[in-house]
Amino acid sequence: ALRGLAGQLLVGNLVVTQNTSLPWPSSYLTKTVLKVSFLLHDPSNFFKTASFLYNWDFGDGTQMVTEDAVVYYNYSIIGTFTVKLKVVAEWEQATQNAEKGIMQKTGDFSSSLKLQETLQGIQVLGPTLIQTFQKLTVTLNFLGSPPLTVCWRLKPECLPLEEGECHPVSVASTAYNLTHTFRDPGDYCFSIRAENVISKTHQYHRIQVWPSSIQPAVFAFPCATLITMMLAFIMYMTLRNAAHQKDMVENPEPPAGVRCCCQMCCGPFLLEAPSEYLEVVRENHGLLPPLYKSIKTYTV
After folding, report:
1. Which pTM does this prediction carry?
2. In order of start, what are the domains of the chain with their CATH numbers?
3. From the first residue on, what is the mean pLDDT of each consecutive set of 10 residues in the chain (300 residues)?
4. Do the strands 149-155 and 70-73 form a parallel or antiparallel pair, or are they unpaired?
5. In what residue span(s) does the PKD domain sit (predicted)?
């Protein structure tokens, strides 16, 4: 039999479907069966007697040859893959010499697929206790395909994020680092939301912030020590004042240091005008005995 190649290529479409309700085109789930179909464009039924051969290449190293225009395949890993298909159509056709020949037409088709995994959760790695003005770094590991957006906010309690409550950040990997510096002590909660084109998930991370240079384990000891020292000082001052008042009652004489101070400060005035000073003393202290007696003189 003679073989000939028709001048025109096959016309058709490669259609990929999956039993999911994803609104994004060309996005599919891993570990879920895909249906890949070839639809031939043949409105005049020209190829109704033709036989077809389909060579499939799924882009992950898997190839197969079938006689059926529909195959089912399951991708086990995430990523972007291109499904390639080569279609060969053959049929018998009479030639000018009244001989039958095998005619053939071919066509190449392809479709790009983006395989994703649903987000199973977010793993948060970071400290739960930190001081003020100390830089905090928290690592987020996404259990699933890289999300398109990550949104987080600090709250006093662990509550879900409302729409528009935070600003989304684009992420192109399965890990992301959050950094923050606390200025005020207290209890906080990181409320985190991540979503890709397939699903979304939430996670929370509690953290306690203490004042700078004060550790909670040793915070009570310095306070107790300071209070004890203050009480001891107050008792000492009280006893000292009581003893000083008792000495003043029992011994009204001024201490030697005071007498010395008076002599140093008031000495020049006493030396210059002793009589006037004594007169002032006698007026103020009437009970004080005179320091000298007057001497009478007689003339014979």
Report:
1. 0.51
2. 2-116 (2.60.40.10), 121-216 (2.60.40.2950)
3. 59 90 76 94 92 96 96 92 95 75 90 88 94 94 84 92 87 91 94 86 94 60 75 84 60 47 42 46 48 51
4. unpaired
5. 54-87
